[in-house]
Amino acid sequence: MKYPLNLITLALISASTSVIAADFSVNKANTTRVNTDKYQCKRCADTSGYRGNVELGAVYNDSDDIHSANAFNSEDGSNAVLNADVQYRAKEGYQAKAQAINLGLANSSAHLEAGKVGSYQAELDYRQLSQYQHGDAKSNLWYADGTLTSSAAVQTQELSLKRQQIGMGLSAQQQFGEQDYQVFARYSQEDKTGYKASSFVSPRPTNFGLPVDAKTDKLSSGLSISGQNWLTSLNYQYSEYDNQIDSLSLTHLDDVYAPAPDNSAYQISLAGQYLLNRTAISTQLSQGRMIQDAAVIQTTGTPIKNWDGQVDTTDGKLAITSMLNNRLRVSGSVNYAKRDNKSSSWEFAQFESDGISGAFKQNVLIDTEKLAYKINASYRINSDYRLQAGFDHKALERSYSDREQTNESTVWTKLNIKSIANSKFKLKASFSQRDGSQYQASSLTSSIENPLLRKFYLADRDRTAFEAKFNHAPADWINVNLTGRYAEDDYSDTTLGLTSSEDYSYNLNIDMQFAEKLSGYAFAGQQWIASKQNGSQSFSAADWSVNVDDEFINLGAGMDYSGLMQDKLSLGLDYLFANSNSDKQVVYTTTQPQGDYYSYRHSAELYAKYKVSEQLGVKLGYQYERYYDTDNAQVDVDAINGLTTFGKLNHNYNAHQVMLSFSYQLR
User: Fold this and answer.
1) Distance, CA of 311 to CA of 367 (rounded, Å)
2) What is the pLDDT of residues 353-378, one digit of tens each?
C-alpha cells in the first residue's frame, strides 16, 4: 500500500521523541504540472529474478535425556533440517517469498507469500513448537479411550507437549482518489498434543500423565481506510477451542477428572488515528463475548447439565501526543476494560476442603472493571540532555473478592544524557503505591481462610524502583552496554502473607571487532530476589515465617574468525553457562532449612564454514550440553504414605550434537 507521508509522520510523532522543526515533506510540493510518465531510473540495478539462499543439513544427537531436545531442538537420533530464504521478483511488480527455519526439527517454521506490490498478497504459514519436561516420569496409571487403567508395576512415561500451527491469509489494497483501502482475512488452526503432569484425589493424591489433544481455530478479518492525515480500521476476531479429551474415569469409578471445557470467543473493534498539525490522536473501541456451554460432570445435588457461561467484554482506549514546541512533547492516554459475567446462576451443594457442607448456595458471577490513565512529558534541555516524567494510575474493581477495589498510582522520571564523548546514559526512577477498599475475608472462603491473610496482588504495597543504562564505545573496535535494576516491595500492612521482596540485577554486554576478520562478544548477568512471608500454624496471629532467596547467573562468550585458507574458511566458538538457585529457610521456634532447588548448564558450540565457491558453502558444527538440576521437594513414587508421585524428575546428563549442512546462494 502506498501510504501518504503524513501517516508516516503520524506514527513517528506517536512513538518518537525527536523534534520536528519545519515541514519540508515531499507531499507538500506542488506536482500537479509535472509529467512523470517518462521517468525512469537508468542507474538502478535489475532486481528481478530469484535471490536468497537454501541450506540443507543433517543433525545427529546423542543423549539419554529427552530434556536436551529443548536446547538441541531435536530428539535423540538423526534428523534432516532445511533452512531457506528465497525471494522472486518480476518486472511487472509480481513477487513471491519462501522462508524455512529449522524445518524438520522440534521447533520450526515455514512461510510462503505471493502477490503483486500495492495490489494483493496471499500467505501460508506453518509452525511447530515442542516442549520437553521428562522422558522417565514414573506412573501406574495409563490413559486409553477415556479410561485411566492401573498397572501393577510402575512404568515410565514421557511428559512433553507439541503444537502444530497452520495459517493462511489474503489481503488486497486499492487506492480511490486520495483514500487507500485495504482488506484482509486470515484463518489459523493449532493442534496441541502430548502429556503433562497433573493429579487428582480418589481417595489418595495421585499424580498421572494428563493426555492433551485439543484444537484451536482462529479467524480474523478487517478493513482499513486511510487519507492524507487520518486512518481508520474495522476488525473482527473469532476463536474456538475444542478439547478432544472427555472426562477421565478409573476402571472402578467414573468421572474422576473434568476436562478443560470447549469454548468460543469473538471481538469486534473499531480504531482510528488522526494527525492535526503536531498533535496525533488515536482511539480504539472493542466489544466482545466469551461463551462456554460444555456439559458438566453430574454430581449429587448439582442441577445443571451445561454451564451456560457467558462473559461480555468492553474495551476502550484514547491516546493523545502533541509536540508543543521544538523541545517539549506531552502525551496522555485513558484505558477502560470491563468484564460483565452473564452466566447462569444456580443453587447447589457447596464443596469444602473437608468434604460437602450440605448447605445450598448460589454460584456467584464475578465481574471486573478497570480504568487506567497515563500522562507524561518529555523535554529536550539541549542536544545532550532529555528529561521525561510521568504519572500512571490504575483503578480495578472486582465483585465478590476479598478486596473489591484496588487503586495503584505510579510516578516516574527518566533522564537521558549524551554529554560524555562516545557514551550514553539512561536513568529511571519510579515509586508506586497500591491501596483500596476495606480488606475483608470473602463470605465464600471465610471459614477456611485466616481473616488476617492478605493476598499479595490485593494487599497494600509500596514499590520503589531504579534503573540505569550505560552505553560506551571507548574505541572503534569495542562497544559496552551495562544495565542495572533495583526494585523493593514493602507490604507494610500485611500480617499474614508476603510482607516484603527485593529484586536487583545487572546485565553486561561487550561486542568486539578485533580485526577485519576477527570478532568476538561476551556477556554476564546476575539477578537476586529475596522475599519474606509470614504464616500461622494456629490459625491466629503469625507464628512462623519463611525466607526465600533466589539467585540466577548467565555468562557467555564467543568469537568468529574468517581469514583462513584465502578467506574461504571461517571458525567460530560460542560458550554459555547458566546457574539458578532457590533456597528456603522456615523459622518456627527454630530455623529449619527446607532444602533448595539448584540447576546449572554448560553449553559449548564449535563450527567451521567453508566456502567451496561463490554460491556453494558447507558447514560442520558440534554442540555440547552439560545439564544438572535437583529439587528437594521431589520424592520417590511411594516415599510418602498416601501420596503417589511421578518420582524424582531431576536431570543429570551430558548431550552431544553434530550437524553437517550445505548451503547454496541464489543470484
Assistant:
1) 9
2) 444 455 666 778 889 999 999 999 99
